[in-house]
Amino acid sequence: MTLALDDKWIWDSWYAHDGQRWHGYFLQADKSLGDPDLRHFNVSQGHAVSDDLVNWEHKGTCLKPAPKPAWDDTTTWTGSVIQGPDGLWHLFYTGGGSAEKGLYQRIGHATSTNMHSWERVGSGLCLDMEGPNAAHYEAEMQVGFWPDRAMRDPFVMKDPDGDGYLMYFTARAPGIEEANAGGAIGFAISPDLYEWTLQPPVFVGDYGQLEVPQPFEIDGRWYCLFCTADIHWSEDRKTKAGMLPVTGNHYLVGDGPRGPWRVAPGFLDGDLPCYRYAARVLMTETGPVLMGFRDGGKEAFGGYVMDPVPVKVDAEGLLYIEASDRGK
Q1: Beta strands across the sheet bearing 309-310
Q2: pTM confidence score
Q3: Considering the chain, what percentage of its residues have pLDDT values greater than 90?
Q4: Of 37, 135, 150, 164, which has the maximum CB count within 10 A?
Q5: Share of the chain above pLDDT 70, in %
Q6: SS (H, E, C) 214-272
Q7: Which residues pair with residue 288 across a beta bridge?
Q8: Burial status of residue 291 (CB atoms within 10 A of its CB: 0-12, 13-18, 19 or more)
Q9: Would you put residue 110 in left (φ > 0), alpha (ψ -120 to 50) or beta?
């Protein structure tokens, strides 16, 4: 079984557990578009539930772009779901608007009592490249240098070292000559899930973009999963890695949730054409597992979320998955 729909492509996904079942959220677009490359700007969010991350019951569309005009009237992209201290569920998502042709990304916020019917908090907008720390980011689109103003894929977690919350997101740093050396993992903090303050990035470099970042802890060690493409490896990263670039899922290792972070050696889960992308690590009763969508490239795009595969930790504290789970 897989997380799939007959009439829609599914790609980026994220998950929450309500104490009884897993809730899977995902980007979806109609296959009637014909070309999977068109899916990004014809998107909504779907919802399904599962007891085992393998067998899924689809609940339908749970969020879509707002009516025009709005800051998120074009895209509602990848996000994360977390429960607040009062039991209310919070969805943080990526939004883009028609006024900027969807090229400026911002972070949105919606809440729900049932994990399906989401209501935007005010206009929905909760974080933009504003304030003194915006100087640490490409706060304006660098036309001809990079294709968008990157601020997407928010991942929100409880601060393990305090009372508030931490947000990580895909971003870029300014003033770096090589485009593929300017990728960043952005950072923001909140005392209550409602008021967010932009902070400097927790990581910069090595790739043009580090998409769908997700920090997590295993046995006292901190990791940050991300995904990237072969065309976005910096020249320095190619040299350090000692391998040909691939597309897929890799990770950083860190001293804590705020870092400092460094790129792990090798590459966790990559191939050409890409086998699996936009993966998440989920903590299950049997240990951590990896879930991502089947890519395959434009000519053989899968458009479904694959079954979970185990994530293991070697004697040096590095992550790996078995070769049989990494595609061909």
Answers
A1: 276-284, 287-294, 309-310
A2: 0.98
A3: 97
A4: 150
A5: 99
A6: EEEEECCEEEEEEEECHHHECHHHHHHHCCCCCEEEEEEEECCCCCCEEECCCCCEEEC
A7: 283
A8: buried
A9: beta
| Rounded distance between C-alpha atoms, residue 138 and residue 214, angstroms | 21
Cα-trace Rg, the chain: 18
pLDDT beneath 70: ranges in the chain: 1, 328
Nearest to 169 by CA among 156, 182, 152: 152
Structural domains in the chain, sorted by start: 8-325 (2.115.10.20)
DSSP string over 57-77: EEEEEEE-PPSSSSTTSSEEE
DSSP string, 152-209: EEEEEEE-TTSSSEEEEEEEE-SS-SSGGG-EEEEEEEESSSSS-EEEEEEEE-SBS-
Residue 69, both tokens: 């005009």
Check if the beta carbon of residue 278 is closer than 8 Å to that of residue 78. yes
Pick from 127, 140, 206, 134: nearest CA to 167: 127
Task: Give the separation between CA 50 and CA 80, rounded to whole angstroms.
Answer: 17
Q: Three-state SS for 36? A: helix
Instruction: With CA atoms as reference, report the closest residue to 109 among 76, 140, 157.
Output: 76
Q: How far apart are CA 209 and CA 113, in angstroms?
A: 34
What are phi and psi for residue 136, nearest 5 degrees? -85, 0
C-alpha 101/C-alpha 113 separation (Å) is: 32
Q: How far, in Å, CA of 157 to CA of 214, rounded?
A: 9
| Per-residue model confidence as pLDDT tens digits over 182-208 | 999 999 999 999 999 999 999 999 999
